[in-house]
Amino acid sequence: MSAIETPTGDELLKVLTALGNPHRMRIVAALAQGRNYVSRLAREIGMSRPLLHMHLQRLEAAGIVVGSLELSDSGKAMKFFEVAPFAYALTPQVVAEAAGSLTDQDEKERAQ
Fold it and tell me: Can you give the pTM of this predicted structure?
């Protein structure tokens, strides 16, 4: 999604839910300083790697961060994350438009 498009209701909920957690906001703040690999990021923000992974998965699913697997000089696989470019304008009009496109989970399940 580009910065000028209005997100769908589902997209907006995913982003707001992802950012509605103080740990995930701190992760985004840390990654805004530059890309980082999981172990170093965990040490810098004082979080266990398993918990950090869970939060990074939610942020990645919402399109807020992107991860890439890279090999170190020693051949060790390292997962790097960085903030994805994003911009959301939260106005009453944007929320109203997004609300009109929300999908109902019950409808999705009935359709399958």
Answer: 0.82
